[in-house]
Amino acid sequence: MKKILFATSEAFPLIKTGGLADVSGSLPIALNALGHDVRILMPAYADLLAGLSNLPSKRINQTGGMVEIFETMLPGTTVPVWLVSHEGAFDRTGNPYLAENGKPWIDNAERFALLCRVGVEVAMNRIGFGWKPEIVHCNDWQTGLIPALLEDEVDRPATVYTIHNLAYQGLFPKELFQKLGLPQRFWSHNSLEFYDQLCFTKGGLVYADRINTVSPNYAVEIQGKEFGCGMEGLLKQRKDRLSGIINGIDEDAWNPATDPLIPNTFDLSDMTGKQKNKFALQKHFNLSVGNNVAVLAMVGRTVQQKGIDLVIEAMPKLMEMPLQLVILGSGEKKYEQTLKHWQTLYPDRIALKLGYDEALAHLIEAGSDLFLMPSRFEPCGLNQMYSQRYGTVPIVRCVGGLADTVEDTTPANLEIGTASGVVFHETSVEALLAATLWALDLFNKKPQWKKIQRAGMQKDFSWKQSARKYLDLYNLALQDRH
């Protein structure tokens, strides 16, 4: 049995802004199910604490004042959660990283440096919990200082640092380095300095015993200039310590055979429920009901990373194709406004819901024929995995986790029964349109179509498989501890 401290800034269902929360709320459970002792450390945000009461706690002195650590459990599990509370740091409502004006909180460096310092105290068993981990698993920039700060500790745990999205690096002005009272030797391009800024991510990239990201392909991509975000040199330098592990999905929450959020459950032995869900989805959005026209769906942020600009540019040609388009998501206002414009032009062909709706997301996955993910970069991605599980054929760009989880429908893959989607390579409207036409052609060839659906629905995207790979990574970190 391994003792693992899992340090994160969010975990579902306690708080979620993105995929990090899904991993933080699932991987510890999967590791626990395999017999390991995992404890989650995260901030005690005001909205989170408001839903909890009468929690036991411990108080410790830290730079900047008194810190209280509340003890609870991840809802519905036996996984302990330690919530770090400090007046003025995490006791504000709303988004954990952004103020109401949409800009980062001006004290984010201080807030998450505090989380990291507490992480070190817990890791070294100086809080009074009577528990010391063998592994500290840090996630994204908010916990990036932990591996750096642990460097000075005698008999420290091994450290693992997971990059969920390298585009977010925790960059702050130089004066904050002094304000945080970090050791002066850290102000070096070989340490936490990045183009005269303090970079939290470098704490993990430079000092962690093992670095990983959320797909094998993304681990390769970030060593190159296109996806490296300025860190490609450092990542190449540490490539012997860098690997990729695909995120799992919650196979209980995303199971078409038992999903309580869809009107008709179904499985491989009886797919009639899928067609009924398609009709329910069409009715929900007042689209014409029928199975002759393919429903093409998108769920996610309407931002350039996700390729929404390509979809908008392709819209005139898409509207010439025999399809209905369903989009659920939110993001940049300019893209939202343009999508609204297109919906008013084609109210019987385009369905749009701005924002996020969990139940509707499930209905879209269950009722669509095709799912579009033309991402410019995608560290892992989850919707392409949900889609395959629900017999919805993904159309994806060949990047990151999309390339790792979708088998292209080539003649060879179709022949051996592994084809599970349509994959295109270029970031262009032409490539997106060609892939969509090919997918529509396959949709009309029912024996081939059923073969593709079957291949996707039979894939194992469980967390159990990914958790075992993390255990292998922890073993390597323990061997490599320097």
TrEMBL record:
GO MF annotation, one: alpha-1,4-glucan glucosyltransferase (ADP-glucose donor) activity
Top-level taxon of the source organism: Bacteria
Binding, ADP-alpha-D-glucose: K16
Pfam family membership, one: Glycos_transf_1
SUPFAM superfamilies reported in the protein's UniProt record: UDP-Glycosyltransferase/glycogen phosphorylase
EC number: 2.4.1.21
Keywords from the UniProt entry: Glycogen biosynthesis, Glycosyltransferase, Transferase
Pathway: Glycan biosynthesis; glycogen biosynthesis
UniProt domain Starch synthase catalytic: residue ranges: 3-236
UniProt catalytic activity: [(1->4)-alpha-D-glucosyl](n) + ADP-alpha-D-glucose = [(1->4)-alpha-D-glucosyl](n+1) + ADP + H(+)
Signal peptide: none
GO BP terms in the entry: glycogen biosynthetic process
Domain Glycosyl transferase family: 290-451
PANTHER family noted in UniProt: ALPHA AMYLASE DOMAIN-CONTAINING PROTEIN, GRANULE-BOUND STARCH SYNTHASE 1, CHLOROPLASTIC/AMYLOPLASTIC
Main function: Synthesizes alpha-1,4-glucan chains using ADP-glucose.
Family affiliation: Belongs to the glycosyltransferase 1 family. Bacterial/plant glycogen synthase subfamily.
Protein name: Glycogen synthase
Source organism: Candidatus Methylumidiphilus alinenensis
